[in-house]
Each structure stands twice: as C-alpha cells, then as structure tokens.
C-alpha cells in the first residue's frame, strides 16, 4: 500500500501516522504474545503439573479455559445485543454451555482413567505419591497420559480459536485494498462506512485456505518444530495466548499479524522453560524475514504499479 501510494501521490499521499501505528503493532504483537503465553504456561505448570493429582487438575482446568475462550469470542465477534449488559450476559451463557460440553466430553473419554488414578492417590502414602508417577519435573506415567489427553483435546479447540482470530485479522488485511477499490468504484465517500460484499470475504477466506493447503506445511514445520519443543500443554498455551491477543487487537482495529503473534507466543512458552530452550538461529531467521518483507513488498508494489500503468496506457 505504501509503495502504491508513493507512485501515485508521492510522499504526501501516505498517512505516515497510520503507518507508524501499524508498524508499532508489528513490534508489540510478538511481545504481547510471548508475555501472555509465558503466563499461561506458568499457570499450567503451577496449577496442573504441581498439583497432587495433575490429571484431575487438567480435567478441571479445561472447562475454565473453554469458558474464557468461548465467552471472549461470543462477546467480541458475535455480540447478540447492542446493550452492553445483555451482550455480556449472553456471552457468559455461551461460555458456560461450551464449558459444560467440554467437561462432559473429557469425563466420557478419560473418566475411567481419572477415577483409577484418583483412587491410587487417595490410598497411597505421602512417600508413595512420588513413586506413583509425580515428581518436581512434572507428571509421569498415567498422570502424564491424562494431562496430555486433556490438553490434546484442548489444543484442537485452541487451534480453532487461533484460526478464527487469524481469519478475523489477516483476511481483513488482505481484503482491505480490494475493499477500498470497490468503494471508489461504487462512488462511496472515503469517510463513509465501506460495505464489503459477502462473496469478496469468501474469496479472501478461500485464498487463506488454499495457501495453507499448498504452502502452509513449511510454516507449520518452522513454528511447530524449529523454534522450541512443543507438547500438548505448550502448544495449547501458545495458541490460546496468541488467539487472545489477535482477537483483542482485531476488536480494537489493529491490523497486527497473527503469524508474528503466534511466533512470539511459541517463544514465550520456550522462555518459560529457560532461555536456552528457544533456538536462537531460527528466531533470527524469522525476524530477518519479517524485516526484509516490508521494503521488498514496497519495492515490488512500485514495480508492478509502474508496469501495469504503462500497459493500461498502451491499451487505452
């Protein structure tokens, strides 16, 4: 957008204050993602891993996380009423329904294992609890199986949460220039609210899905394997934190990058385990690619604009 503006209107055609606001969000979003994921994972270690019965603690924490996520989505993205108090109440009801659903699903899938482990802990002596599968490093054996089982289900939901936030932010970024062009073609004033046709948004969503299908595996491999070692609990912490930050930013109208935020969140989970748990080389490559894409994108925009302008003049 900056490159296009510089070609057609010069330096004064670019709203530099808005650009500074957008650029600052690119710097702030990875830091916010890292900070929130750091806190979420620390809470998991404190209240789940360090609990006398980690499996039961994980099963109890899952509905709380679902309640928080569903309530946030319901209030931020699907306000069912324009009255603030009613919208909050309806969001809380949606969150409660989601929490009950997840609680029952976990009991159905892991209920027998939860009961057997609870009986073992109840009948064991204090000296036997360590041998039963738990020490300061975290749960072991059946307890670890329960924790990973619970957060495995939770990670599916957090991935959906992240995908929702990603679509609400990045698809909007991609459709923004097209929406501006459509508003000019429709003769809509710049100060008026732009109405984007549903089919245009659908094409934007299709583009996101098609890109994920064809090239997304490379980004998935980088974020999932090359930054730090991820487990269901760490993956959930990173996705839940990143989705919360992106959804909050989308509600405020900040065009931050979901990828920037998620990378920062994955780093935050790694930092929660120690500075040496994050691969500095991979992070360095990612940051360099972020910096390079900005001027390269502007230069390519200038190049394509000049070429297309000459082609259009030739045919006209």
Helix/strand layout:
Layout: H1 2-9, H2 16-49, H3 54-76, H4 84-123, H5 126-131, E1 134-135, E2 138-139, H6 141-185, H7 198-226, H8 232-252, H9 258-273, H10 280-315
Helix pairs in contact: 1-10, 2-3, 2-8, 2-9, 3-4, 3-6, 3-8, 4-6, 6-7, 6-8, 8-9
In brief:
This protein has 10 helices and 2 strands. The chain has helices spanning 2-9, 16-49, 54-76, 84-123, 126-131, 141-185, 198-226, 232-252, 258-273, 280-315; strands spanning 134-135, 138-139.
Total discrete domains: 1
Biggest sheet character: 2 strands, antiparallel
For the largest beta sheet, what order do the strands appear in spatially? 1-2
What is the global morphology?
Answer: globular
Query: How large is the share of residues in beta strands?
Result: under 5%
The class by helix and strand makeup works out as mainly alpha
Number of strands: 2
The averaged pLDDT comes out at 81
How many helices? The count is 10
Structure description:
This protein is mainly α and 316 residues long. It has one domain. 82% of the residues lie in helices and 1% in strands. The chain is built from 10 helices and 2 strands. Strands 1-2 form a two-stranded antiparallel ribbon. β1 (134-135) and β2 form a beta hairpin. α3 packs antiparallel against α4 and α3 packs parallel to α8. The chain is globular and about 80 Å long. The chain starts with a helix and ends with a helix. The model is unreliable at 125-136 (pLDDT under 50). It comes from Aegilops tauschii subsp. strangulata (Goatgrass). This is Phosphate transporter. Keywords: Membrane, Phosphate transport, Transmembrane, Transmembrane helix, Transport.
């Amino acid at each position: 957008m900056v490159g296009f503006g510089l070609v057609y209107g010069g330096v004064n055609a670019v709203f530099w204050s808005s650009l500074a606001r957008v650029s600052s969000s690119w710097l702030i979003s990875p830091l916010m993602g890292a900070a929130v994921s750091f806190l979420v994972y620390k809470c998991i270690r404190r209240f789940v891993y360090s609990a006398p019965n980690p499996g039961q603690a994980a099963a109890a924490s899952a509905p709380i996380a679902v309640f928080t996520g569903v309530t946030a989505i319901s209030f931020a993205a699907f306000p069912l009423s324009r009255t603030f108090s009613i919208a909050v109440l309806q969001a809380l009801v949606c969150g409660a329904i989601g929490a009950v659903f997840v609680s029952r699903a976990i009991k159905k899938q892991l209920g027998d294992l939860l009961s057997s482990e609870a009986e073992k802990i109840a009948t064991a002596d204090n000296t036997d609890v360590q041998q039963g599968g738990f020490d300061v490093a975290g749960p072991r054996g059946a307890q670890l199986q329960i924790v990973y089982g619970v957060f495995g289900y939770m990670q599916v939901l957090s991935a959906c949460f992240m995908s929702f936030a990603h679509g609400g932010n990045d698809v909007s970024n991609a459709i923004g220039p097209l929406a501006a062009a459509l508003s000019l073609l429709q003769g809509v004033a710049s100060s008026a609210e732009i109405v984007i046709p549903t089919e245009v948004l659908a094409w934007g969503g299709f583009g996101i899905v098609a890109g994920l299908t064809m090239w997304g595996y490379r980004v998935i491999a980088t974020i999932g394997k090359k930054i730090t070692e991820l487990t269901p609990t760490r993956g959930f912490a990173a996705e839940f934190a990143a989705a919360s930050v992106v959804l909050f930013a989308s509600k405020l109208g900040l065009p931050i990058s979901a990828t920037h935020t998620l990378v920062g969140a994955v780093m935050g989970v790694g930092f929660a385990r120690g500075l040496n748990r994050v691969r500095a080389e991979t992070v360095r490559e990612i940051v360099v690619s972020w910096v390079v894409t900005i001027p390269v994108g502007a230069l390519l925009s200038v190049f394509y604009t000049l070429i297309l302008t000459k082609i259009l003049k030739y045919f006209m």
